[in-house]
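During the second half of the funding period, the structural biology subgroup turned its attention to how the target accommodates small molecules. The most pressing case was heme C, which had performed well in the primary screen but for which no bound structure existed. We therefore specified the complex as follows and requested a full 3D prediction, including the ligand pose.
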Amino acid sequence: MMMSFSLLSGSSSAAARTRLAALIFLPLVLIGGALGLSACQGGEEGSEVSDRVSALFEPLPEEAPVPEDNPMTEARVDLGHKLYFEPKLSRSGTISCNTCHVVGAAGVDHRAVAIGEGAREGRRNSPTVYNAAFLESQFWDGRAATLEEQAKGPIQAHVEMDLTKEEAVSRLRETGYLPLFKKAFPKADTALMFDHIADAIAAFERTLMTPGAPFDRYLEGNEAALSTKQKAGLELFMNSGCAGCHRGPMLGGQGYANFSHAKGDGDVGRAEVTGDEADRYSFRIASLRNVEKTYPYFHDGSAKTLREAVSVMGESQLGRTFNEKEVERLVAFLESLTGEFPSVPYPKLPRRPASSPDADVASGAGP
Ligand code: HEC
Ligand code: HEC
């Protein structure tokens, strides 16, 4: 690898020698390209995806990792599907998870910041639920480790759904959910309890995956899956330093970085979780999967378009002002991260009168 590189640069002193060398060393150039010395040329020749690209990115897995204590049984996923759409889980009976994370709209609400119970404005933008199962941590500041833990937040949050655990459990009991919980949690002493609401929703969320994006097909060896412009965008994405943060199968979703660009909104981000001054204005490095569809951007929803978000990133994270062409290329590459969305039907929600009071019903978090 080093050898081919030094031979090539040595030959650049005279044009004629370069051309000769290019002929002689063409195979080496191609190998070099494959090894990541010049991934761009490699791409256009129809050769394999360069090692440099595959060292940074991975295709999105088709299936999410499933925790041992929350298996994705059919009954559990089904229940979670209903609960995800269940407006009774909010004080007014009008807001469900799907209000802010619309499964038919890339898992977002397209608002700058979320609006929840009592039309109260939250302070942050609703991130997508698609592929959230692959995130290393949940929320813009990473304050929840798992989907199970995450799902307990919004139901109780004043600005979101605003119920107590006890209210959530008794509402579901009154609505006729008990048999569904018994099916989904057959071994539990108490089937209908708060933690199980979160477990079932999390099991359902693990079905919200979008594999098969053009970039995934490219990573799997289909050169034609990306346009020339998108390949140029990928190059720029790697060379300018975006991939230093946005990498891996999610192009982000792990690790934190300072984003003091949004300082003005008073949101100190990760520092709220760790109490560490050094984390002031740090936020989780956003995943860029389906980013074309999840506008507006940033934790405060301050960038309306992907072009704007890309320019801001260049300035704030890399100290670099991209010209219009460069922004276009980067945006074209980011558009190749849009995967195939599953069709998620609106479920039939149980609306039966409650069965007789049952010992199986408990409130609170349970054991
Ligand atoms: C009122 C709007 C609203 C409702 C209702 C709501 N969410 Fe959210 N959701 C948000 C916002 C805003 C955030 C980001 C909050 C933060 O980072 O502090 C978020 C974050 C998340 C995340 C983390 C994703 C990531 O990228 O970190 C998941 C997963 C999620 N919500 C799922 C749910 C589920 C499941 C429900 C129903 C139980 C729900 N949400 C209800 C607005 C809402
Ligand atoms: C130093 C790490 C770092 C670098 C380098 C970086 N980003 Fe980011 N990126 C982040 C963080 C952190 C966020 C979340 C910001 C926030 O809190 O809103 C983010 C958010 C984004 C978003 C918005 C995602 C969303 O859903 O709101 C886009 C788009 C983006 N980055 C693209 C890029 C591009 C393109 C580059 C290269 C020009 C780049 N980033 C360079 C850390 C980085």
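Two results from this model are relevant to the next phase. Residues 95, 97, 99-101, 114, 116, 122, 124, 126-127, 129, 132, 135, 138-141, 147, 150-151, 154-155, 160-161, 201 surround heme C (ligand 1) (CB under 6 Å). Confidence is low (pLDDT under 50) at residues 1-46, 358-367.
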